[in-house]
Amino acid sequence: MRFCRVRRSGLNLAAGLVLAAITGAGTSPPARRPAARLASEAAIFNHIGHRFTVFRFRADPLIVVIDCPGLEAQGLMFDRIAALIEKAATPRDRVLDEPAFRRALAAANLSVATYYYGNDYPASALRRFYHLAEAEHVPLTAQERRLRRIARNEGFLRPGANGAVLSIPQAEGRRRVGWRTRAVILRHELAHGAYFTLPFYRAYVHRFYDSAMTAPERAAFRGFLVASGYDPADRDLIVNETIAYMVFTRDPNFFTAATVGLSTAQLASLRRRFIAGMPHFWLRRMATAPLPAHHPPPLPGSSGTGSFRDR
Q: Strand pairing of 53-57 and 37-39?
């Protein structure tokens, strides 16, 4: 679910039916009316800020995107959730306290800033994390407490609430995350958001994985993901990540056929067939659309809307 470093300097990164799925009809109860502002992919991508900023994705308001001021701040908010929900080397039944988590980071030769470069969790995962932390009396970081307030404000902590929380870091020039990297992370994470909030899309992903991919193709992606630290026992996680990398991480600086040991023709065929069968909703366009372009804010005194652009 998360974007992690994989290669080089990159990351080991019917209308009625759609409407019913987005509003939660016939599925888990939707969260209460969210408080965060609506924004498009381009608007979220172009946002510049030095604090945590919360957006609701305009095409699916059950997806909340937290724009973090940097990798360190993002890690302090999400890393222990990642350790609980999807990492193979850490316990899946309890929240690590800070000393234990720091030891896990050291064992993996990672830091708070590099554990993951982007995050995505369904509301149910957040409920699980906060329930276990409270039951076990594990102190939360200030950033984890902030995330709990955000999730509560969006209604995601209510039992059965449907929703997803994603995170991306601010671009930091050439240091770790540039604008291109930020765009790749956001597109990858939005694909996960759709998987969490839209049951009809989630069902399609599993059908494609089970019936359209060959056993060697599934094994190739699974091997890559397990080597990246994902829990091989969590089939839902492996399926979700397979499609996010295969279809929605198209920049060759971050993911290629060679990353998973497939030929370029094999990967192109998988992508083409997946997109051809996709339900017609907002994510289908993103499967082939260019990444959003960076638009610097206007100079002081010039006309314009500032760094937050909703186009």
A: parallel
